[in-house]
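pasting for the record
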Amino acid sequence: MRSRPGSLDNQFCALLTRQPNGIITHVNLKTLNLNQRRTSGLDIIANYKFDVLGGTFAINTIVQRLIRRDIQTDPTLDLEPTVGLFAHPEWKATVNLSYENEQFRVGSATRYVGEQRYRESYTASIVNPHETPSMFYTDLTASYNISETMRLNVGANNVFDKKTPQMPNAYSGGANYYLGTDGGLFDTLGRTYFASFNWEF
């Protein structure tokens, strides 16, 4: 049954308890599955390693393509495609390279995030900036086995200090509206360093 917003004859009236004079005394709150979301994608994973120079060199790669992500924000509206819009890039990828032997290990991780737009039909004349560029991030790590029980680890994230792309409404209310959504895609801190020491006993 479809809702008739301008009439009392709709499916939501049964959720209300009224007095004889029409005053609402109780609302039965339920979770209603009114909207739709349809998603499909493709993950391609490739791993390869070989022995060289007394150690092991490894390559680990994952490429992700978001083929479809359609959402419906209102049951009266059509599904709206969102692939390529903010927080939902069509392409993402990660490539990990590493070499290790009994004494030490070095590695790098390069992450790719595809371009995104504010709205498919928006241009810079409507809202600026209206899109983010493709981004690459590189992290480096190294570890050294001091002994059988002690290990030193160092590294740097976002080695080339790539900044978070500017987005529409970034200064609305003094904060970036999209930061909470896209923090999992973009580096929001810039270049950072870390070090740790492991001692097993």
